[in-house]
Design brief:
21% strand; 3-stranded antiparallel β-sheet; 47% helix; alpha+beta
């Protein structure tokens, strides 16, 4: 229906992808959301032509409930949700750079 939009069957069902990128429309929209919808910055971040970002935005505008549903599902994914899918998953602890006194600080 749209230029640059192709559909693929995935584990989540039929999903709109942007041709030549390997990215689903919702994934591009997730990045675009971080840049306030700025297509140039999104394209630069993803290292793809701006026309492909605009294609994803056009698809989202035409089918907001589908793309927004995929975004909401992704937003809802947290460690506890992952544990339900992957019961043996373990939380990794990441040590930040040493502070000025030579001590490492721990983040999770």
């Amino acid at each position: 229906m749209w230029t640059y939009i192709v559909f693929r069957d995935t584990a989540a069902g039929r999903t709109a992808f942007v041709e030549g990128t390997g990215l689903a429309v919702w994934e591009i929209m997730m990045i675009a959301r971080c840049y306030g919808g700025d297509t140039a910055r999104t394209a630069q971040h993803l290292e793809i032509p701006e026309a492909l970002v605009r294609a994803a935005i056009n698809d989202r505008d035409a089918f907001p409930s589908e793309v927004d549903g995929e975004l909401a599902e992704n937003d809802a994914m947290n460690f506890e949700a992952l544990q339900k899918i992957l019961p043996n998953i373990q939380r990794a602890r990441v040590l930040d750079e040493p502070d000025t006194e030579g001590e490492s600080t721990e983040t999770t």
